[in-house]
Amino acid sequence: MKVVLPGGTGQVGTILDRALTAAGHEVTVLTRRPVRAHHIGWDGATLGRWAAAIDGCDVVINLAGRSVSCRYTAENLQAMMDSRVESSRVVGEATAAATRPPRVWLQMSTATVYAHRFDAAHDEATGVIGGSEAGVPDCWAHSIEIAKNWERAQAEAPTPATRKVALRSAMVMSPDRGGVFDVLSRLARLGLGGPVAGGKQYVSWIHDEDFVRAVEFLITRDDLEGAVNLASPGPLPHRDFMRALRTAWGVPVGLPATRWMAELGGFALRSDTELLLKSRRVVPGRLRAAGFTFAYPEWESAATSLVERARLVRAAARRARESSHAV
Q1: Are 233 and 37 in contact (CB under 8 A)?
Q2: Euclidean distance between CA atoms 199 and 150, whole angstroms
Q3: pTM for the whole thing?
């Protein structure tokens, strides 16, 4: 199977590139900074020679977009919007112009599109799209507008021969350096992994192995199109999420943080507190109805698995450093 990954050098792209290549598929990554043999340069906004990779491929999985791990300034929010909408638009143009268009186009989206709430879970049929909640920062509504425009750019692309799926993904947990699991684990190991702002807000997440399996599942299911939630069936309050992560690392306590402390920390890390404070209670209604089975439906077992892998990665890195020093 020939797979094209626009924006495939970020955390999620690295996960998919690694897994799909290991499974024997031919993977091509479109990136602004090509450094490997299977990378092709593109700018994420205009048609170019890169479009030849889409003509004749089987699957496009568009992951392009500016990282959300930044301060939500007006400039950054606009860059997040433009990078997502423009890349989706131009992938649609390349797909529409292809002599042999891909049979399926999976488009990254986000579970952030749903409203901040505690009382009920969001599935695709009954979930409430956010943007009008009271008592939340205005920038949260901007995030939802970004997600809505992101999905609209794919939906409106004139590609009748290509099935389209919008991946409303929760946070993908993997032990890769720099990912959300790595950041949260560092806090937990330092004793700082306690509840934030009371910890009642829900965390939706998905184990990286389940994320890959869900993508593979959606590629094969010709009857599924439109928005699909990629999230474990076990979202849980932040306080319970961090408690399970501390347990997996063998850390008995974690200092709690107030909202203003989270704001201060977000400023220092040049990130935004929406990632910590918004209650994302999202469940995979369509995946489960279609018969998909999660290997890691509950966070406790997922955290244990991820910590074991992270320890192996750290041990391998330590051996590599020792070996280089010995030379």
Answers
A1: no
A2: 30
A3: 0.94
